Amino acid sequence: MIDPEHDLPIKQQAEMLDISRSTVYYEPRPVSAEDLWLMRHIDELHLNYSFAGRKFYNSVRPHSSLGALTPDQVYFSRLPESMAA
User: Fold this and answer.
1) Structure confidence by residue, pLDDT tens digits, 39-78
2) What is the C-alpha separation between 38 and 33, in angstroms, rounded?
3) What are the CA-CA distances from residue 57 to residues 16, 45, 49, 60, 66 (Å)?
4) Is-contact 11 21, C-beta < 8 A?
5) Which of 14, 31, 32 is nearest to 23 (CA)?
6) How many CB atoms lie within 10 A of CB 70?
7) Of the four, 7, 28, 37, 60, which is 20 to 30 A from 15 by CA?
């Protein structure tokens, strides 16, 4: 694609290919084994307990910044009654 040894400068080669010059120099770093392990376990938790995230954090768990109310309680208490149902 881009040939650093070519007579045409890299800038012009990138312009001709309609790509950013930064992509020419980008070299992806390998993902560490620890990161892969962590990502796999986060995925497993999400797949096994996908129902728990929103329910726990928005309707079960009270927040001190909300006066010990849950986010759902605060949000739905501000809606007109016709919309909350």
Assistant:
1) 898 788 778 877 666 666 667 777 777 888 877 777 777 6
2) 9
3) 50, 15, 13, 6, 13
4) yes
5) 14
6) 17
7) 28
* Contact between residue 34 and residue 46 where contact means Cβ atoms under 8 Å apart: no
Q: Rg of the chain over CA atoms, in angstroms?
A: 25
Local structure of 38: helix, strand or coil = helix
Pairwise CA distance, residues 12 & 21, whole Å: 9
Exposed, middle or buried: residue 24 (CB in 10 Å: 0-12, 13-18, 19+)? middle
